[in-house]
């Protein structure tokens, strides 16, 4: 019979206690969570649209990266800030992609997907409670509890995406009102907790609500000023949020290194007031940078094209806002198709995809039905010009249908 020496690293690791795997719930925790939500969503959009990978490649790549980071997270035996928050960002990406896949690709109603994800979350919580008799994240100190925890986190991101999109579309909230309303709901949960609501229940409700709050704040910063945003753009907003996240996570890493992982019942290593000051500093940094980087107001481009095709007379009066920029690109694509330059039309179609996706947060809530009618026509146009062997007839037909759809929304057809 042989035994492994306790000097063996593998043997020593098996004897180490399995400490709590998640951070203490503080102001810094909530700020990083909200910022991570925005970074996750905008980064996925960047890969899909700006880089041009498409949803299938992006979704597959993010699943592979999430699996690798999740493996590292599950292998650790205690809370490691860098690994934990990297996992949260990637879960945010994948959770958002799951909802978008059902909504945008398979055409599932947001009412249906919201209901389905609510049921799934209830199932996860029910099984978790039956097996562990607790849903508290202060007790994520066994491998099985951690698996339940991450399963619940993934579903909350998907649910938060679906419920947030449903609220902004069905109620036409827009990102500015959405940010105010979801902030108010989170404050209401905090007040209910002070009045006796279970800490566990309050945490999970707030966790779901921070997903649409983060999306609304991200849209507020990234959307053009003509839509009521700050105008930073998705890339600048993502980089800004990521820098603040890295700074706060680095501080978390330093705190854990100095004071160790907090176990259930232990007081936080950093006084709540001091932690709130750090979170406040992060908010101030985001606000100051946003104001400094915000561009001046720019006029919308006017639609110009050749006489080969009648241009769309789009203006700022459509039910979903100013379509002049979109109309310009569509007319350009039509002109290129008419001249036989299908390669040029494909290149210009990338501009259409970027412009349309960038304006979604501002336009879609104003009139979801009108937005979807144009969105479907844009998808047909993109499919036609990006076909393996595109034909002029197919491209021309798709562009004409898109122009007709825009004109119909404008009330010109």
UniProtKB/TrEMBL annotation:
<protein>
    <recommendedName>
        <fullName>Membrane-anchored protein</fullName>
    </recommendedName>
</protein>
<dbReference type="InterPro" id="IPR007136">
    <property type="entry name" value="DUF347"/>
</dbReference>
<feature type="transmembrane region" description="Helical">
    <location>
        <begin position="148"/>
        <end position="167"/>
    </location>
</feature>
<keyword id="KW-0472">Membrane</keyword>
<dbReference type="Pfam" id="PF03988">
    <property type="entry name" value="DUF347"/>
</dbReference>
<keyword id="KW-1133">Transmembrane helix</keyword>
<feature type="transmembrane region" description="Helical">
    <location>
        <begin position="79"/>
        <end position="99"/>
    </location>
</feature>
<feature type="transmembrane region" description="Helical">
    <location>
        <begin position="105"/>
        <end position="128"/>
    </location>
</feature>
<keyword id="KW-0812">Transmembrane</keyword>
<feature type="transmembrane region" description="Helical">
    <location>
        <begin position="230"/>
        <end position="250"/>
    </location>
</feature>
<feature type="transmembrane region" description="Helical">
    <location>
        <begin position="53"/>
        <end position="72"/>
    </location>
</feature>
């Amino acid at each position: 019979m042989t035994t492994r020496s306790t000097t063996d690293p593998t043997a020593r690791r098996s004897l180490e206690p399995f400490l709590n795997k998640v951070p203490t719930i503080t102001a810094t925790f909530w700020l990083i969570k909200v910022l991570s939500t925005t970074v996750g969503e905008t980064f996925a959009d960047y890969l899909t649209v700006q880089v041009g990978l498409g949803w299938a490649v992006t979704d597959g790549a993010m699943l592979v990266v999430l699996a690798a980071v999740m493996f590292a997270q599950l292998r650790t035996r205690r809370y490691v800030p860098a690994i934990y928050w990297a996992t949260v960002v990637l879960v945010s990406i994948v959770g958002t992609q799951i909802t978008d896949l059902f909504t945008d690709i398979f055409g599932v109603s947001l009412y249906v997907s919201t209901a389905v994800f609510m049921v799934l979350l209830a199932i996860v919580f029910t099984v978790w409670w039956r097996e562990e008799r607790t849903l508290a994240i202060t007790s994520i100190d066994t491998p099985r509890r951690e698996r339940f925890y991450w399963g619940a986190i993934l579903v909350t991101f998907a649910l938060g995406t679906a419920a947030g999109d449903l609220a902004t579309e069905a109620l036409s909230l827009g990102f500015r009102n959405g940010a105010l309303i979801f902030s108010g709901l989170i404050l209401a949960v905090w007040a209910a907790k002070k009045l006796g609501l279970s800490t566990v229940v309050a945490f999970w409700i707030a966790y779901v609500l921070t997903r649409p709050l983060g999306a609304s704040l991200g849209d507020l910063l990234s959307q053009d000023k003509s839509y009521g945003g700050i105008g930073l753009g998705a890339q600048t907003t993502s980089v800004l949020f990521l820098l603040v996240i890295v700074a706060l996570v680095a501080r978390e890493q330093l705190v854990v290194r100095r004071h160790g992982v907090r176990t259930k019942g232990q007081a936080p290593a950093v006084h709540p007031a001091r932690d709130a000051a750090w979170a406040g500093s992060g908010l101030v940094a985001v606000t100051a940078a946003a104001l400094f980087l915000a561009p001046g107001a720019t006029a919308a481009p006017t639609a110009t094209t050749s006489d080969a095709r009648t241009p769309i007379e789009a203006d700022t009066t459509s039910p979903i806002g100013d379509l002049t920029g979109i109309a310009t690109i569509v007319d350009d694509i039509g002109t290129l198709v008419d001249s036989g330059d299908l390669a040029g039309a494909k290149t210009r179609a990338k501009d259409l995809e970027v412009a349309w996706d960038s304006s979604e947060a501002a336009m879609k809530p104003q009139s979801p039905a009108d937005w979807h009618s144009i969105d479907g026509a844009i998808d047909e146009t993109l499919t036609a010009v990006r076909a393996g062997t595109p034909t002029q007839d197919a491209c021309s037909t798709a562009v004409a249908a898109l122009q007709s759809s825009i004109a119909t929304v404008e009330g010109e057809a």
